[in-house]
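Entry 14: structure prediction run for Trafficking protein particle complex subunit 8. Input pasted below.
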Amino acid sequence: MRTTLGLNDCKLLSINSSTQADGSDADNSWSTYKAHGLHNHEGTCFLNMDDLNEIKDFMQDFASNHIIPYMEQKIRVLNQQVATTRKGFRNQIKNLWWRKRDDVPEAANGPMYTFTSIESQIRVLSDYAFMLRDYELALSNYRLLSTDYKLDKAWKRFAGVQEMSGLCYFMLDQSRKDAEYCMENAFTTYLRIGSSGQRNATRCGLWWAEMLKTRGQHREASTVYFRISNEEPSLHSAVLLEQAACCYLLSSPRMLRKYGFHLILAGNSYYLSDQKQHAVRAYRNALFVYKQNPWSYINNHVHFNVGRWYGVLGIFDVAIKHLLEVIACSHQSLTTQSMFLNDFFHFVQSTGEKFDVYKLQLPVFNMSSLRVVNEDHRTYASNADVDVNESIWQELEEELIPSSSVVRTNWLDTQPKSSPFRNNKACVCVAGEAVKLNVELKNPLQISVNVSGISLICQLSTNLNASETGALTTAAEEDIASTKPSISTFESDGNNFTVSKLDIVLGGGETKRIQLEVTPKVIGILKLVGIRWTLSDSVVGYQYFEVATQKKNKKGKRGARRSLNTNLIVIKGLPKLTGYIECLPTKAFTGDLQLLTLNLRNQSEHAVKNIKMKISHPRFVIPGDSSDLDLEFPQCLRKHVQSDSNTVSEGTKENVKGSLFAFPQGIKIQGGTTFSWPLWFHAATPGNFSLYLSLYYEMESTTDIPYRTLRMHYNVEVLPSLDVSFAISMCSSRLQEYIVRMDVINKTPSDSFALNQLSCVGTKWAVSTLPSRDSISFVETIPANQAVSCFFKIKDLSTSSCIEAADGSCGSDIVLSPGGSTDVFDVSRTPITDFHYQERHQQGKLAKVPRGLLDFILISKAVAVNSSKSEQLLSHHTCHCSALSQNPVWWLMEGPRTITHDFSKSCCEANIQLVIHNSSEHNTTVRVVTSDCMAEKSQTAPSHESASGQGGWHDVSLENDIKAIASTKGTHSQKQSSESISPFVWCSLSSAQVDLKPDSSAKIPLKVCIFAPGTYNFSTYELHWKVHSSESGHVDENVTSGGGQGYPFYVNVLQGA
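Run finished. Output tokens:
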């Protein structure tokens, strides 16, 4: 062969020189290639190290002495051939002229080029130059070819040339822009060709991405990977998307959100390719991004799919762990929530056992709403009483609890230092009495969930050693704060305590506040550890109370305070009272008066004594007497019912004002018995008010706690009923009499009320109807949204001039209903007078009340639509009413109203008299001045009208009407002069003065001369008075002096025969 082919062209290669045919030394030869998966030893069993070295030397010699020289020789020949035919200006013009064809058909591969064609030779030249790293020569020929292929519409070859041009630009590292342009051109051209260029497009994109990654342009490289993935099958696309995610992670700055998003896309593509393990791997890597951010939707998507794929793979514990993260997704739709929950319960049931889950998110327990209710010396009648602010109870009980006991300090402070109860960190509860824990839980889903077996996790230690107690408390707190113990550590102990279990169904989005109870049976230390519950009879959830323990700080600094005290010291049993107010209304009309009953029951075996009661609103509720229990309401309040116990003395009023009531000393409530006491209720004003009532009682036997209190709280809504107001005006025709107008407005939208009785409080005043109306039955019922006005007359019975005071013809009560005097209620007896005292105290001060003030009580009844309903009585109290004028001097003109006289013989003389009464408490001087014709400017309102700014009553004089009639009659006659002579003159003195003592009267005779018949108003006089002080007689002109215009007094003068 050497003789024939030449000495340099032949080479002898010796292989399989190993003497051991079993290939025992093959591992030494190929050990470096095991990582690449080479496990077949059949082809390597006869090679030794010398054979391998000889093969290596042969390949090096063959490449350097034969292949490379051949390629170099080929390049020189092809380059000269190309230069002859294609290079130069003449050849380029010729080539363009020859290739300028517009009718070239469009084809994917373009025209067919033979191996001997100039285009194929140029491509061989370019590829040889690229392999020998002559990138400049290769690039120039690639550029030459790209023009030819483009003109020939050989798009696949054009894209290949563009791809190689981009690689040349990259290897030369000259123009990044040109390199990217060529790769972009090649990639889009491959895609435009169709399926035949798909593989080439993927190859081009991979080269392009590697170029960008080499230059550190990872962000741009990830975009290229994403573009490639859109054109590949799901498995290839998953690999490319994962590469794109890695590029985002390597970019500067790191783009974590896009990294996680592309991992999710890659995992989904792996799942579509039935590569669940790779899908789980991609999703788990994405969790590191999303678990630190509140991107709830994609977080739920990742956890749900990872859990579902783990469940399909049979790894149920990990699947349930991930699904636990999404079962409480409140932001998802109803369909999505149902899918999450169904898959979760499906995998739980697949395990065949119940799962114990720490901090199960369904339902959600609001730990900030936790409140431990333990009763020591403070007990509560209902759960609502616990929510009342402690400061309200302390203020109410300030006078209730004896001064020897300090309310604001714990009773444990009074224990000896050696007592185990001196632990200030713990609260106190009583053995046999339930310790309650209020907590709020919410269903975040839109579907209903079944929660059963909700109970407390507790621990009770019967060791009461003081030193060990503190160690137990601290150790337990640190253990729970730092670890998550198992539920079995705190199982219920039926011998030491019992816990309640609660089953509820929470609707979609529903929030409930529940109360859990634990009842200790023995003395010891009770610790509330946490809460446990069962979800849909499949999953057991439990959560421990997080207690902030006190850390060891430097001297002089305090540690963090605990947020919830769960340590309770259990002491031996105590007597306990429970109570409620029977028939207390939650809604009532203003003025509603009712008789209630306070029921107290002693649940223990020992008696209690020294019972006292404090009421927050004595204006609404006052205690009655023991005899009131047997009364029939409201018949007991009528005047014909005689009861000495109902009479209220001044001392009783003072006790009522204090709102502190002490039960009789002999009253004891024995164990297991019920005690009742009457209460009177009166809805004073409209609105919402809270009634607080606290009862204090002491133990008859010796106990750890000497006393206890029972706290009761009620909310009452008082609705508007009748709005009553009074306007009082002095009577101009009678002394010491007033005209009263009572305005009543029914402010209810649908209820009617019947007026029953109007009373003046006390014996000084008498009320009666006006003389012109003996009955006012037309206002006996006031319909809804209606208003009425009633007129009455009141008299001062304390004056010596009042005739009715002697014969008793007038009283302080007037019946407004058709029932007559038999339906009169006695307002001078309890409870009406007690509530009136409260109203009077509320509406104004009692001390130094000005004279002339009076109070009214209007009693009405609600008109019942249903006749079977009991009678409803209402009392309305209006206090401190006064007349519109409080002048110290009253006056009245007396005389004949009709006079007959023959004016043809002489003028007529009329004798009249002016009665003046001094109603003040001091001596008063009164001067009367008469005038025949009052000046027009002096015709002003009397001083007693202008002095009051309250409005209301005004005198309506007939003088204007008379003048109008006179002017009408005189229209046919000539006009009278404005300065004509008056038709009457005063014959007596023009001025008279009289001195009056307190509460005395005087009569001044007057005479008037009349010249013609007609109707005359003898009010042309004025009164001026001065009130003298009883000590020195000094007169204060600004306060005790005044005057007034005369009241109208009309007299008809007729012509006699």
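Notes: The radius of gyration is 56 Å. Will compare against the previous run tomorrow.
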